[in-house]
Amino acid sequence: MPVMSSDDFTVHDDDCDEVGDGMPISDLPDEVNSIEDLDCQCWNKYSSVDEI
Predict the structure, then answer these.
(1) CA dihedral defined by 28, 7, 41, 3, rounded to 10 degrees?
(2) Strand partners of residue 3
(3) Residue 41: which residues within 8 A CB-CB, separation 6 or more?
(4) What is the pLDDT of residues 6-45, one digit of tens each?
């Protein structure tokens, strides 16, 4: 499940060490169209947003 960081509103995987305090979200934001739109390394284990 994706988690949005409360510090900078970036989206992370729920087991990411970089997320800090955050809020679970049910879906990725609309502006995320591909895995490249997600900045954190925690998404490297996925090959596409369909896997998330």
Answers:
(1) -40
(2) 12, 24
(3) 18
(4) 888 899 998 998 888 889 999 999 999 999 999 999 999 9
The CA distance from 34 to 47, in Å, is 9
The 3-state secondary structure of the chain, one letter per residue: CEEEECCCCCEEECCCCCCCCEEECCCCCCCCCCHHHCCCHHHCCCCCHHHC
Q: Write down the pTM of the prediction.
A: 0.82
Please name which of 36, 8, 4, 35 lies closest in space to residue 22, comparing C-alpha atoms: 4
Q: Backbone dihedral region of 4: left (phi > 0), alpha (psi from -120 to 50 degrees) or beta?
A: beta
